[in-house]
TrEMBL record:
<dbReference type="InterPro" id="IPR036291">
    <property type="entry name" value="NAD(P)-bd_dom_sf"/>
</dbReference>
<dbReference type="InterPro" id="IPR001088">
    <property type="entry name" value="Glyco_hydro_4"/>
</dbReference>
<feature type="domain" description="Glycosyl hydrolase family 4 C-terminal">
    <location>
        <begin position="192"/>
        <end position="422"/>
    </location>
</feature>
<keyword id="KW-0378">Hydrolase</keyword>
<keyword id="KW-0520">NAD</keyword>
<dbReference type="InterPro" id="IPR019802">
    <property type="entry name" value="GlycHydrolase_4_CS"/>
</dbReference>
<dbReference type="Pfam" id="PF02056">
    <property type="entry name" value="Glyco_hydro_4"/>
</dbReference>
<dbReference type="InterPro" id="IPR015955">
    <property type="entry name" value="Lactate_DH/Glyco_Ohase_4_C"/>
</dbReference>
<keyword id="KW-0464">Manganese</keyword>
<keyword id="KW-0479">Metal-binding</keyword>
<protein>
    <submittedName>
        <fullName>6-phospho-beta-glucosidase</fullName>
    </submittedName>
</protein>
<dbReference type="Pfam" id="PF11975">
    <property type="entry name" value="Glyco_hydro_4C"/>
</dbReference>
<keyword id="KW-0326">Glycosidase</keyword>
<dbReference type="InterPro" id="IPR022616">
    <property type="entry name" value="Glyco_hydro_4_C"/>
</dbReference>
<comment type="similarity">
    <text>Belongs to the glycosyl hydrolase 4 family.</text>
</comment>
Length: 449
C-alpha cells in the first residue's frame, strides 16, 4: 500500500510518519511519498523524519520524496492532501488586508478564509483531476483548508472518494467526555453538527444517557477544558450546546478583531517568521533536526488561538502533545483500507444527514467509515440559530466556489458581502480590491464580471 502526502514539506508531516510507525498502524502502508513544490521544505522535513525512531527506511513504511506531482500520485492507494497555496506569505496578506479594514482575517472563518479558498480551490480541482487520471482507485483524505469547500470542490471530480478531516470536533468531544467523567476510549456517541469550523456539540451520549446537560450546569467541570474556559459557562448554557472553538470568532467577533489588531503580530506573521528561520536550519543538516522541529512544534501549539484566550492562560498539556489531525487521518485510512468500521466526525457530502440543507452541501457530522467510504449519520434538525448561521455560511461557500470555478468577480464580491463577519458592503468591495492587489493569482482568476 502506498500513501502519498501532498504538501509533504508541511510542518505537521512528521506527526503522520511517527503515527504510522506506532504499533497500532504497523503494516497499514508500505511506502510513503512526500510531495512538495519547494525542494528546501521537502529536504527539511526529510531530515526531521530521518531522526524519528526507525529512520527513513527503518521500522514502518519506507519514506521518500519528490517534487513531481505525477510521480507522487502514480500508483497511490491513499492521498493525503495538505497543500497551502501561496505559502505563509499568502496567509499574512489575507490577515493584514482584512485587519487594516477592521475585519477579522482568520484564514478559515473570516474574510481571509474567502481569499484563501479563492486561491486554493482551482489548485485543488487540478490535483483532483490528476488523481482521477493517475490513481483512479485512490482515496483522498483532505486536510487542506478551508476543508469543507476544498472537499466539496475535489468531490465534484472524485465523488465520495474524497473525505475531509479536521481535528477540532474530535478534540472537543474528547475533552468534553473527560470533563463529564466518561472514558473517551469507551463508546461515547456525540451529537455534533455543522460545517467545518462552524459546529456545535449538542449531546454526549453514553449508556443511553446524555451527559452534556449536567456538564453545562457544572462551572467547575467546564473550567477543566479548553472550550469550557474559552466560552465560559453562560454562553454554552444559553445555546444548550458546546460550540466548536472557531465559533469564538463569531460569538466574540468584536473582541477577536480588537485582540488581533492589538497583538504585535498576526498568527500568520508569527508562523511565517518562525518558518523562515526554522526550515533553512532543518534543511541544512539532519543532525538535531528532530529536536529543533519538536521545540518549534510545541511553541506553535502553545500559540494556537492565543488571541481568544485570556492573557497568560496556557493550553492544557494534553492539547500540546499532538495527536490530532494525524490520528483522525490514520483512522480514516485504516477503515477504508481494511474495511474495519470506525466512528469519526468528518466533512462529507450531506445527502440526507441534515435534511434542512442541500444534499450536495459538505457537512461536518458523525460518520461510519468502512471499506466503501464515509457514511454520515442522520442527525436531528438544527435549531433556528444553528440553521441561520449554517445557511449564511453556506451562501458564502456557494458564492466562493462559483467565483473559483467561473472566474466571476461578482460571485467573489457576493461571498465577502454576505459573510456574517464582514459588516459593510463597502468594506467587502475594499476587501476584494485588496486581495486582488495582494495576490496576482486572484487578478488572473477573477476576469469575469
Amino acid at each position: 500500500m502506498r500513501l502519498t502526502i501532498l504538501g509533504g514539506g508541511g510542518f505537521r508531516v512528521p506527526l503522520v510518519v511517527r503515527a504510522l510507525r506506532a504499533p497500532a498502524a504497523r503494516g497499514l502502508v508500505d511506502e510513503v511519498v512526500l510531495h512538495d513544490v519547494d525542494p528546501q521544505r521537502l529536504r527539511a522535513i526529510a531530515n526531521v523524519v530521518a531522526e524519528l525512531p526507525g529512520g527513513m527506511a527503518g521500522e514502518g513504511p519506507v519514506v521518500g520524496g519528490t517534487t513531481s506531482l505525477d510521480v507522487a500520485l502514480r500508483g497511490a492507494d491513499v492521498v493525503f492532501s495538505a497543500i497551502r497555496v501561496g505559502s505563509a506569505a499568502g496567509r499574512v496578506a489575507d490577515e493584514r488586508v482584512a485587519l487594516d479594514l477592521g475585519v477579522l482575517g482568520q484564514e478559515t472563518t473570516g474574510a481571509g478564509g474567502v481569499a484563501y479558498a479563492l486561491r486554493t480551490l482551482p489548485v485543488a480541482v487540478d490535483v483532483a483531476r490528476r488523481v482521477a487520471e493517475l490513481a483512479p482507485s485512490a482515496w483522498v483524505v483532505n486536510f487542506t483548508n478551508p476543508a469543507g469547500m476544498v472537499t466539496r470542490a475535489m468531490g465534484e471530480v472524485l465523488g465520495e472518494k474524497v473525505i475531509g478531516i479536521c481535528d477540532s470536533p474530535s478534540g472537543l468531544v474528547r475533552r468534553a467526555a473527560l470533563a463529564a467523567g466518561l472514558d473517551p476510549a469507551a463508546t461515547v456517541l456525540p451529537d455534533y453538527v455543522g460545517l467545518n469550523h462552524l459546529g456545535w456539540l449538542r449531546g454526549l451520549w453514553s449508556d443511553g444517557v446524555d451527559h452534556l446537560p449536567a456538564l453545562l450546569a457544572d462551572d467547575g467541570r467546564l473550567a477543566t477544558f479548553e472550550e469550557g474556559r474559552l466560552f465560559g459557562p453562560s454562553l454554552p448554557r444559553l445555546l444548550g450546546a458546546l460550540p466548536n472553538e472557531y465559533l469564538h470568532y463569531y460569538y466574540y467577533a468584536r473582541e477577536s478583531v480588537a485582540a488581533t489588531r492589538a497583538a504585535v503580530a498576526t498568527r500568520g506573521e508569527t508562523l511565517a517568521a518562525a518558518q523562515a528561520e526554522l526550515y533553512p536550519a532543518l534543511a541544512a543538516s539532519p543532525s538535531g533536526a528532530l529536536e529543533r522541529w519538536e521545540a518549534a512544534r510545541r511553541a506553535r501549539e502553545e500559540g494556537y488561538l492565543a488571541e481568544a484566550r485570556p492573557a497568560g492562560e496556557a493550553r492544557d498539556e494534553a492539547d500540546l502533545a499532538g495527536g490530532g489531525y494525524e490520528q483522525v487521518a490514520l483512522a480514516v485510512m485504516r477503515a477504508v483500507l481494511t474495511g474495519e468500521p470506525a466512528e469519526l466526525i468528518l466533512n462529507v457530502r450531506n445527502g440526507s444527514a441534515l435534511p434542512q440543507l442541500s444534499p450536495d452541501a459538505v457537512v461536518e457530522v458523525p460518520c461510519t467509515v468502512d471499506g466503501t467510504g464515509a457514511h454520515p449519520h442522520t442527525m436531528r434538525a438544527l435549531d433556528a440559530h444553528q440553521l441561520g448561521l449554517v445557511l449564511a455560511l453556506g451562501a458564502v461557500e456557494d458564492a466562493t466556489v462559483a467565483a473559483a470555478t467561473t472566474g466571476s468577480r461578482s460571485a467573489a464580491l457576493r461571498a465577502l458581502t454576505v459573510h456574517p463577519l464582514v459588516d459593510s458592503a463597502r468594506v467587502a468591495e475594499q476587501l476584494l480590491d485588496g486581495y486582488v492587489a495582494a495576490h496576482p493569482e486572484l487578478a488572473a482568476l477573477l476576469v469575469q464580471r
